Amino acid sequence: MGKSINTKGWPINTIAMLDGEKKVCLPCEALIINETIDGYVWVINCILSMAPERKRRDIKFLVGDGIFAAETILTKLGIEGTCRVLLDHHHLLSLEIGSWLKAFGLNLFSLLKEDLTLMVKSPSATAYEQALEGVRSKLHNHPDQKHAQYLETHIHSKRHLFANHIVQALPGHLNIQGNAPAEANHASIVARVGSLVMEPVLLLESLMERHLSICSERNHCIPGDLTS
What we know:
By secondary structure, the chain is mainly alpha-helical. It has helices at about 5-10, 35-50, 70-75, 90-95, 100-105, 105-120, 125-140, 145-155, 165, 180-195, 200-220; strands at about 10-20, 25-30, 60-65, 85. The protein is built from 11 helices and 4 strands; from the N terminus they run αββαβαβαααααααα. The chain folds into 2 domains: about 1-90 and about 180-210, Nucleotidyltransferase, domain 5; about 95-170, no CATH class. Helix 6 runs antiparallel to helix 7. The protein has a two-stranded antiparallel sheet. The longest helix has 20 residues, at about 200-220.
């Protein structure tokens, strides 16, 4: 989301899904006071109330940034036994907005980034363990041991939320590596609506007009001659 909208205006909470053709579709958009787990729970419950034939047990993955890391959203929704939280790779590893950058600081994160990336993108458990040992060895003699503790508590113990070799073994994973559909939708909002802060009513109007335009474009898209 454009910074001016999300940090100075009303945060836009959008649930983005992939349809049968793996195109982004939006079941719901909402303006919220601030970004919280309870806000996400409210939006998802609204979606389920508007689509009563869709059962909450059908939700298999919730993909987002670090706000989901505690997995409390699953308990609040009552789907902890049927759904998995997955963390977006970009929000973990980015040199601009990454949560691990914020935890380690720029200098230390730059030293660890190669191994941390291998932990996230790991093709196998062996590759993950090798990368983990690389990070541990670099932190072993660091004067501030809070970083080593962070590695064990907030990264290694949460590997089921991001490690590629674990995610790829989950049925229906669709090669998910993060919340790219949501980020693509955010970029679309900025492109079509703009990044300037506006009154909530005007913003809602602009969001609805954007959605109508997208639906119209898809419905009137004429494919090429299928008989040739």
